[in-house]
Description:
This protein has helices spanning 3-22, 27-30, 36-47, 54-68, 74-88, 90-94, 98-123, 134-156. It is an all-alpha fold. The longest helix is centred in the C-terminal third of the chain and has 26 residues, at 98-123.
Amino acid sequence: MTPLKSYKIIYISFFICLVAAIFPLPILFNAFRPDWVILVIFYWIMALPHRVNIGHAFILGLLLDLLLGSILGMHGLLFSLLAYFTSINFQRFRNFTLVQTTLLLGEFIFISKIGLYWIASSMQEIVLHRHYFWSIFTSMLIWPWFFLFMRYLRIRLKVS
């Protein structure tokens, strides 16, 4: 597949994850919303580190900040740090089992949640509720199926 078509599929997945991040849910289920952007960044950097890099993660973070109305650069900084750590260790992470990558992803999301809270609380007074961390568990539950689905699409569409 040509690089242009590969990027087209990657950018479509970025667009879908941004839409899923802002898609309206009932208030009861909103706390369980998986961190779709982190899932997509983590997958593409592990699968194709020569195509998706820290710049993509930073731009996705800025777009998410604009869509959510949060402090500009907050998600961009954390996503770029996540992308950096994933890109320098992608060969090691590829050898992990699916359970190990799920636990690693849970750690990444926990660190990003703590970082987001820390940045936001430095700007204004924020109360940390216990349901703030529920999305970590839903992201970890979704990750194995998400990973297998994305790998199937990548192989089927010959994204390289």
